[in-house]
Design goal:
This protein is mainly β and 189 residues long. Helices cover 5% and strands 42% of the residues. It has two helices and 14 strands. The chain has helices spanning 34-38, 175-178; strands spanning 2-11, 14-22, 66-68, 84-87, 93-95, 100-108, 111-117, 122-127, 129-131, 138-139, 144-148, 160-167, 170-171, 180-187. The strands form three sheets. Strands 3, 4, 6, 7, 8, 10, 12 and 13 form an eight-stranded antiparallel beta sheet that branches. A three-stranded antiparallel beta sheet has the order 1-2-14. A three-stranded antiparallel beta sheet has the order 5-11-9, with no helix packed on it. The longest helix is centred in the N-terminal third of the chain and has 5 residues, at 34-38. It is globular, with a radius of gyration of 18 Å.
Length: 189
């Protein structure tokens, strides 16, 4: 285990030390049976729980360098960066970060895009990717979705994968979903 980043965040009268820790990849965790998932204590129709940290796997192997982090927009149409840019070479295989159903394959703003909707409604998006899948296909964590292509890459002249995460129309920072993290509460004194 390696500590990747450490930071200090003040929350009210408590300081919080946050460490992002790299964990060995290993096999994905087994999903509980459907009956167990449905009796999770959440009433039917209740909003899904906050996505847990470290549940996703990196879409590019080996783990890529982050070229540009997520920057939350100030408003729905405001400036920001709604995902992570991950450095990679042209033709790199792009893999599903988690199992789900391919919900979109097409072109948005001149870039080829693949989207996967996961069982809790969270959606991962990958661009620019020449697809190897079709809408409706079930994919498992690590399944190949396509290959990274240089056309439409907003990292030009370099090539990068833009990995997005969204629930409905709300964008989510993908990084906490990729990193296993540990929070330690410390007094401010």
């Amino acid at each position: 285990m390696r500590v990747l980043t450490t930071g200090l965040l003040a929350v009210g009268a408590v300081a919080v030390t946050v460490e992002a820790v790299a964990m060995p990849a290993g096999p994905p965790a087994m999903s509980p049976p459907a009956a167990v998932r449905q009796t999770s204590g959440r009433p039917p129709g209740a909003p899904p729980a906050t996505p847990r940290a470290g549940r996703w796997r990196w879409p590019i192997v080996p783990r890529p360098v982050i070229a540009r982090p997520f920057e939350a927009p100030g408003s729905a149409w405001g400036a920001g960066h709604r995902g992570l840019d991950l450095n990679a070479a042209d033709g790199t295989l792009v893999r599903a970060v988690e199992g789900g159903v391919v919900s979109y394959v097409g072109v948005i703003a001149g870039r080829p895009v693949v989207a996967v909707t996961h069982r809790d409604g969270l959606r991962s998006t990958y661009e620019p990717v020449a697809p190897a899948v079709a809408p409706g296909r079930l994919v498992a964590t690590g399944d190949i979705l396509g290959r990274l292509v240089p056309s439409g890459s907003h990292c030009s002249p370099l090539v990068c994968l833009h990995l997005g995460a969204a629930r409905g129309s709300a964008y989510v920072d993908p990084l906490p979903l990729l990193l296993r993290s540990r929070v330690v509460l410390l007094p401010l004194a």
